[in-house]
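**Reference record**
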Amino acid sequence: MAHTRHAGTVLAFAAVTTLFFAWGFITSLVDPLVAAVKGIFSLTDVQAQASAFAFFFAYFVVSLPAAALVARLKSVNSILVALCTMIGGCLLMLAAANLANYWLVLFGLFVLAAGITVLQVAANPLAAALGDPRHSHLRLTLSQTFNSFGTFLGPLLGAHLFLEGVEVKPGTVISPAVRAEALAGIDMAYLWICGLIAALAVFFWLSRRVVERAAPPSGTTTGLLAAFTSKWALFGAAAIFLYVGAEVAIGTQMALFLNDNAIWGQSDAAFGIPLLGYAMGSDGVPGVSLQEAGKAVAFYWGGAMVGRAIGSALLARLPAAPLLAVFTVVAAAMCLYVALVGGVSAGFVALSIGLFNSIMFPVIFTLTLERSDASAESTSGLLCTAIVGGAIVPLLVGLVSQSSGYAFALVVPAACYVLLTVFALAARRAPVVERDTAAVSIH
């Protein structure tokens, strides 16, 4: 019986982990999309960052209602609702591409992210709870590794489809043919994503009984605002706000940053790095084009994938809070190097920040769940609401980049990482709230 239950838990964890891959892939498409719409619709940096704002603002609007939905419908039904909502968002993106309407692009991104928000509220605590509670950090980090694999593939596909011939440097003009091709690429990407989400919904429907048997009991719909009275839930929400804001701001600006003449715009150094150069695919023109830079963004997210794989091993041996402190300090130092030193080397340093972003989200999430005296549903809902940092911080970075350049704008993420170090040090000293393990895990 114990062996059968363990096998069911492993299969449930595998099914949930496929969802992490899906939303990682879709989320990372926002990075090349920001660069594409800047050229397609002739936008400023801040206007282009409205794409990231529309996507991540959904977390602020939807997370707490999503927590109530998960508590009422349970995880599996909530995940199916989320996948259907994501299909609706994809259909709106198809309409936006065919009508060449930026406002519809923003609405489509909001609806798509609303579905992903429900998915995250349901899946993050579910992945953490499916097994021995002592290894919750490891399980969530392992799931996030597959999330990072999705974020690695997203920019490669997005840059290939969205950025062919698109340029945004001062003095460049995008031709009607290039504009039409970029819009057609957006249409194709979201058409395929719509089909893949539908297939994933069918897969999860077929796997629902396995997950339902292995999942811990859901909470009630009462007390979902209790996280606002928990010091650690609020502290963790602030940390998630800062982390997601920093990560998204760097990712959405990365293609524009690397394409800048002060970084790689007039250099072929990146093509000398075997794997990176191959993925970027030189067009034979000296310097790094916007499309080539967009493909390089995959290595920012790929660093997070590698870092999460390494982090999973480290978290099995080392305490989570001190490890988080080390990673945040290194990330802050790298941002400051980019902002203050610049040049070709800054491009390689910026791409490497993802390696140290790797464990931050899952470790912040689980550290907060352990220390919050509110329910897991309430705390998870508040933490996912705080992902709105991905809407706010990129706008601030866009404002700084317009006035002081793309490299110097990384002082904003640097400040976020410094504050995250404070969170990690505080978490190291804070006691874990004892809970009834029968209510949060299945052995």
